[in-house]
Design brief:
The protein is mostly helical. It has four helices and no strands. α2 runs antiparallel to α3.
Length: about 90
């Protein structure tokens, strides 16, 4: 199986599972939001390690949410890309 076929099959699978994609998007978004709020509340402490730790949490949350966003977008565009009807 070549890489183009593998990517197409993975995107098709993402387009067929919108509930799973929404859960992934919400989990990543809430994780990032929690990191931002914690950074806001701990900003008076001025600890360098907490800044780096919470910045890493925010970035990981965003990276986790991106495939969920892509999956929801693929679900919305499934007829155009894969000719899938409900």
């Amino acid at each position: 199986m070549d890489i183009k076929t593998a990517i197409t099959q993975h995107l098709r699978q993402m387009a067929l599972t919108p509930k799973q994609q929404i859960k992934q998007l919400l989990t990543g978004t809430l994780t990032s939001l929690a990191g931002v709020l914690l950074m806001l509340f701990t900003s008076e402490l001025q600890n360098q390690w907490s800044f780096y730790l919470l910045s890493t949490l925010i970035v990981l949350g965003i990276l986790y949410a991106l495939p969920g966003y892509l999956g929801i977008w693929m679900w919305r565009m499934r007829k155009f890309f894969f000719d899938i009807d409900d």
